[in-house]
Amino acid sequence: MTLPPLATSADAAGYGYNLPADSGDDLLARASVRIRRAAGQPITPSVVTLQVPVECGCAELPAPPVIEVQAVATVSEEDGSTTPLLSGWFWDGTVLRLPGWHVHQVQVTYRRGWTVTPDGIVELTCQVANRLADSPVGMEAGIRERAIDDYREVYAAEATQSAGDLLPGELAALRRELGGRDVWAVKTR
Q1: Residue 123 near residue 177 (C-beta atoms within 8 A)
Q2: Tens of pLDDT along 140-182?
Q3: CA distances (Å), 61 to each of 31, 41, 51, 91, in order?
Q4: Contact (CB, 8 A) for 110 and 67
C-alpha cells in the first residue's frame, strides 16, 4: 500500500522550494518514504491492533502519537484467548490505565499518527525533495565519479552513502519534530 506524500508541490512552493514541474510529485513521494523510514513510527493516521504487557495496572502503547484507543481486551495466559473490556480502562494521553484489573497482557486497538501532518515535517519533506532534485543522476546508485573528455566530477564517499537516506541535519530536524518519550527512574534496586 502506497501512503500519500507528506507534502504537496503547493507546500514546496509555499516554503520557497522550486521543484521541477515534471517530477516534483515523485520527488515528494520519495522524500516521504525516506522520512517515514527514518521516523520509525507512523506519521499518517493508521489503526493497529496489538498485544502489550501490563505492569502495575498500566500499559504503554508503542509508536506515538496515539489519537484514540478504540478497544481493549484481556489476554488469557493459558490459551491466549481475548475477552473484551467494555469498561474499567482509560487512556490518559500517555499510558493505558487499567485500575482494578490484574492482568499481565491486553490486546489494544488504537489509531495512531497525526491527523494533520506537523508543519515541520511538511517543510522537511520539501527540503529533502529539493535535495533529491539537486542530486546528480547516478549518485543514489553509488556512482562516485563521472567524467566526459577532460571534465571530471568526484563525489565524497559520505555524499554517495547518504544519497538514499536523510542527512544528519535532516535526521536531527526529524527527531525534534517527532519529539521523544520522557523516561523517569522512580526507584532503582
Answers
A1: no
A2: 555 566 677 888 776 655 544 455 688 889 999 999 998 754 4
A3: 27, 12, 9, 10
A4: yes
Q: Output the pLDDT for position 185.
A: 43
Q: What does each C-alpha distance from 53 to 17, 49, 87, 93, 181 come to in angstroms?
A: 46, 14, 19, 18, 18
pTM: 0.71
Q: Half-sphere exposure of 10 toward its Cβ, with a 13 Å CA cutoff?
A: 0
Q: pLDDT by residue (tens digit) across 99-133?
A: 888 899 999 999 999 999 999 999 999 999 999 88
Phi and psi, residue 32, nearest 5°: -65, -40
The length of the chain, given as a count of residues = 189
Using alpha carbons, select from 88, 87, 97, 93 the residue that is nearest to residue 57: 97
Handedness of CA 62, 121, 27, 29 (dihedral sign): positive
Measured CA to CA, the distance from residue 45 to residue 58 in angstroms comes to 24
**Cell numbers describing residue 122:** 511538511
